[in-house]
Amino acid sequence: MIIPGREVSGPVTERTDVCVIGSGAAGAIVAWEMAEQGHKVVLLEKGGYHPRQDFTQREDQMIPMLFKNCGLQFTIPDAIAVAQGSCVGGSTVVNDAVCFRTPDTVLGWWKDDHKVEGVDPAAMKRHFEKVEPRISVTEVLPFELNRNNLILKDGCEKLGWAGAPNKRNCRDCRQCGLCHLGCYYGTKQSMLETYIADIERVHGESVKIYADAGALELARSGSRVTGVGASVDGGAGTANPLNVKADLFVVCAGTIGSSELLLKSGLDINRRVGRNVAIHPSAALIGDFPEEVRGHEGIPMAYHCYEFSVLKTGKRGFMLESISLPPYQFSLPLPGFGFDHKELMSRYEHYGLMGAMVHDQSVGRARLGGPLGTILEYELAPEDAKILVEGMRNATRLLLSQGATRVITSQKKKTVVHGEEDMYLIRHRGVSALDINLASAHPQGGNAMGGDPKRAVVDSNSRAYGFENLFVCDASVFPTAVGVNPQLTVMALASRLGEHIGESWAKYAGGS
Length: 512
Ligand SMILES: Cc1cc2nc3c(=O)[nH]c(=O)nc-3n(C[C@H](O)[C@H](O)[C@H](O)COP(=O)(O)OP(=O)(O)OC[C@H]3O[C@@H](n4cnc5c(N)ncnc54)[C@H](O)[C@@H]3O)c2cc1C
Ligand code: SF4
Prior knowledge:
Elements: E1 2-3, E2 12-21, H1 27-36, E3 41-44, H2 59-66, E4 75-77, E5 81-82, E6 98-99, H3 104-112, H4 121-134, E7 137-139, H5 147-159, E8 163-165, E9 167-169, H6 195-203, E10 207-210, E11 213-221, E12 224-235, E13 238-251, H7 257-264, E14 275-278, E15 282-288, E16 303-305, H8 310-313, E17 318-322, H9 327-331, H10 338-345, E18 351-358, E19 364-368, E20 374-378, H11 382-401, E21 406-409, E22 416-417, H12 424-429, E23 439-440, E24 444-446, E25 470-472, H13 487-509
Helix pairs in contact: 1-6, 1-13, 4-13
This protein binds flavin-adenine dinucleotide (FAD) and iron/sulfur cluster (SF4).
Iron/sulfur cluster (SF4) binds at residues 97, 170, 173-179, 183, 185, 187-188, 299.
């Protein structure tokens, strides 16, 4: 049962078996698994409930409706834009549907360097195989590659770089190009269309989903969490308190959100909460082609180049990913002001767009403060800056090899590369805070999983150190950046936690 904030007319108290906080890639799956095991669930979601019929395909309406802070979230001091969804279904509603399994190399780091048990490729494979059919993961078909995606494919083939069509969680994509605005056609198999819809259909009676309900504070008694206080936004300036008591709590509020809740609740386990955040910082490279590319017509992200990524090299590097963006989002990384910016935008239909995404070190930190409640501190490490420059140079080479007459970078001082002779400009103009507009859609870490309670926030089973019945499960538990688009890793970890709780329910829930 989904209960939007406007339907809550006074203070509410709930008593349930499991309380899940956050309804995104992790929260929706954890709630489903708990309900399947016969437990009653209360799911709290800070964002609103918006069925796909509400998706108007307009940026001015959808970005404030579906994104955290109306799409405005930046790191300090670098002002990197960090996008996160905030609605029932979380970021899966606004994402590009790209699906990668966690690279084996990364799972090896988690096991060897962070002492996480049970994440070897064979163990994780079981969970990928369970989740993938539920969200219809299939490879993009050749006829679905539009010109923008073909530029990357043809460039990889010409330069001899490893590339492949993306796998996506989508069924019969209508190729409208507006994945970031929610899928009006319902073909993107986000949590909204899959696990949440299935919860409604199969477990409508035993799972209560409160939308517009932001968890404010967890209450504890010794080593047990006993309740959570939330505020339900009823619209027009009204708010009602909601208190939930449960045997077991699973925090799935996403990177930043989960750390914020633990910190606000005074549960800064070993003073590690909020640390080791990575974001996959990405630069935009814009190739100007004589003919129209019309990247916005078709699947926004359908091809990737992994020649320089952990998938091929076994080391941190970068991925090149084709992407298209609707006009407002496209305009953000473009340099220039006023007439200059307008002149660049006037070539919108002719641009081929590509992102160079860095597999970064986890150097960021989410901490309480600032007008929005949490500050995300993040500075590009020097090694990552080098990787970023290399990524930008190679993306530029590829675009030029495909006939772009110039490549415009997202550096703030307008940087235009016409050939190898002015490639030096990319390094010269720099990638520090004042030099470049970077973006991230993949914040990860903050509540790292690991075998050492001095370094990690949660153990190998996602249970918070020091607590009997508190779990954290979402992108915040990644011990390192994953290096590929992260949603499938989050989902597999959620499925894994569901299985673990099923095996150990009495141990964790028995105390109350
Ligand atoms: C624009 C965009 C494009 C992306 N594209 C891709 C892609 O193509 N492929 C891919 O693999 N990944 C992609 N991602 C990233 C991917 O969607 C996320 O990594 C993944 O959804 C993270 O899952 P999560 O459960 O950690 O958090 P989320 O899915 O973000 O869910 C967290 C939920 O918790 C809620 N919440 C936060 N605080 C509270 C609170 N206090 N109380 C109650 N609820 C709370 C939030 O509102 C949110 O709905 C994209 C992300 C964005 C924003
Ligand atoms: S491109 Fe496909 S998945 Fe994306 S919003 Fe359009 S129809 Fe949905």
